[in-house]
């Protein structure tokens, strides 16, 4: 007798009752465990061949009142890069991305050569700064990474698709190509495909991708990165097949590095899986190995790296306060004990970042927040099926000079004013006396405005006592 046993990763609630398990009896022998994933590369071979070409061309529209700009001398290129530049130009010619230009043109731009990380080749970008002043941009919404990552609740299977040289798969209308003419030591060329440097490129590409993949459930489109997610393998496979069919019909192609039907993928500089969102280990490692800054430039670089992971660490604005003091104008650089302690504290916190839970509009939401002399901090929590609270995101910001001299009550009212609203939410705000915040005679006009900001929504504010709330933001991450 043969039976199929399905193993579901991350499922905490039993699928069988105690009586049903007793009736089945013990499993005497498990011969094999197999998972069948379709070979999408074999099913859609044309999607992984060469550089695609979208069926519709893009026309660059310009303002007639802007005078054309043309350069007559190519920009200097470092001699060691000259051979690599020539190789890249030849490759772009062979793929039809660019063409020779022999006729006079009103517009002519320079190029910017960027070595790739492996140093084996270069990327050539046309500097279209002057042309961009004349380009009439298309208005199309570009969602943020946080907006996209908030759509993953309940999904456990993920496929990440990457369009091959995404912008270059959008052809330019013949009448627009000469606008992109650029000068190199090897002659003049123009773009046949949508160039990276034009200001309208992100909006044009995002709009085309939205049109191609519209009405497909579980699809997140972020420029040339596409994520398909679903709660089960069977549903996921059906959706991925629809996505690939749409892309093939549109004439687009994908990179070989696409990942199909994975329990975990890297997307938008995060690691995502069925349990939540994780900090990218490469970014965390880069911060861990960063040496103590010796000047403002290095400090700005360090703070920039840290801010990319701000959602994973509580009260970041408070911890970075000693470091940000060094960025003030006319301040002598001095790396003392407070800066060293803050530097090490930030590193330590980021070494143990929690996995953030996927946001779900169906779950009870709690915001724990507090204000200090240096900044405002909050954590968005959601109650899970087992009753535990998991962090969804941390947020903090520093105080302005005027805000720092506010009384503690005013700072916490300011914090409450900035918290999210619009859904059923409980706010835990530390040590605000109810009689002070509800008695209109004791509040200024601004304070009344702060306290009334949530009255039109289904929210409640709960006062925390003592210093328990101050540590709750870091304590919740360990539950």
TrEMBL record:
This is Pol polyprotein. Keywords: Multifunctional enzyme. The keyword tRNA-binding does not apply. One of its GO terms (molecular function) is catalytic activity. It comes from the Eukaryota. Signal peptide: none annotated. The keyword Chloroplast does not apply. Pfam families: RT_RNaseH_2, RVT_1. InterPro entries: DNA/RNA_pol_sf, Retrovirus_Pol_polyprotein, Rev_trsase/Diguanyl_cyclase, RT_dom, RT_RNaseH_2. Residues 95-272 form the Reverse transcriptase domain. It comes from Elysia marginata.
């Amino acid at each position: 007798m043969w039976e199929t046993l399905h193993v579901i990763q991350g499922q905490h609630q039993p699928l069988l009752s105690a009586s049903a398990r007793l009736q089945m009896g013990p499993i005497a022998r498990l011969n094999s465990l197999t998972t069948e994933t379709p070979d999408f590369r074999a099913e859609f071979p044309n999607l992984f061949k060469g550089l695609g070409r979208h069926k519709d061309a893009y026309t660059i529209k310009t303002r007639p009142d802007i005078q054309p700009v043309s350069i007559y001398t190519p920009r200097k290129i470092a001699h060691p890069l000259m051979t690599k530049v020539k190789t890249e130009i030849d490759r772009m010619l062979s793929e039809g991305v660019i063409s020779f230009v022999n006729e006079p043109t009103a517009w002519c731009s320079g190029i910017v050569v960027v070595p790739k990380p492996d140093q084996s080749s270069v990327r050539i970008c046309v500097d279209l700064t002057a042309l961009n002043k004349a380009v009439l941009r298309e208005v199309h919404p570009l969602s943020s990474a946080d907006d996209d990552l908030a759509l993953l609740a309940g999904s456990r299977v993920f496929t990440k698709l990457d369009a091959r040289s995404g912008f270059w798969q959008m052809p330019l209308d013949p009448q627009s190509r000469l606008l992109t003419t650029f000068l190199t030591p090897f002659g003049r060329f123009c773009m046949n495909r949508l160039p990276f440097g034009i200001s309208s490129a992100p909006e044009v590409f995002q709009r085309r991708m939205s049109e191609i993949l519209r009405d497909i459930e579980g699809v997140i489109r972020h420029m040339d990165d596409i994520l398909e997610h679903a709660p089960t393998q069977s549903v996921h496979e059906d959706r991925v097949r629809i996505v690939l069919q749409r892309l093939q019909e549109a004439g687009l192609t994908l990179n070989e590095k696409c990942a199909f039907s994975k329990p975990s993928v890297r997307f938008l500089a995060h690691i995502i899986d069925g349990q939540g969102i994780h900090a990218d280990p490469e970014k965390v490692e880069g911060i861990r190995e960063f040496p103590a800054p010796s000047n403002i430039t290095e400090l700005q670089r360090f703070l920039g790296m840290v801010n990319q992971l701000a959602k994973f660490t509580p009260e970041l604005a408070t911890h970075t306060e000693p470091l940000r003091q060094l960025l003030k104008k006319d301040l002598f650089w001095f790396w003392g004990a407070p800066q060293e302690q803050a530097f090490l504290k930030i590193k330590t916190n980021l070494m143990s970042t929690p996995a953030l839970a996927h946001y779900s509009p169906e779950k009870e939401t709690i915001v724990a927040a507090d204000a200090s002399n240096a900044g405002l901090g909050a954590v968005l929590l959601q109650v899970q099926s087992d009753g535990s609270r998991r962090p969804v995101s941390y947020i903090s910001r520093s105080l302005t000079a005027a805000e720092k001299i506010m009384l503690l009550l005013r700072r916490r009212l300011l914090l409450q004013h900035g918290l999210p609203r619009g859904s059923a939410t409980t706010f835990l705000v530390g040590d605000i006396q109810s009689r002070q915040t509800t008695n209109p005679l004791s509040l200024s006009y601004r304070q009344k405005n702060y306290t009334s900001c949530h009255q039109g929504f289904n929210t409640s504010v709960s006062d925390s006592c003592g210093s328990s709330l101050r540590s709750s933001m870091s304590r919740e991450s360990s539950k």
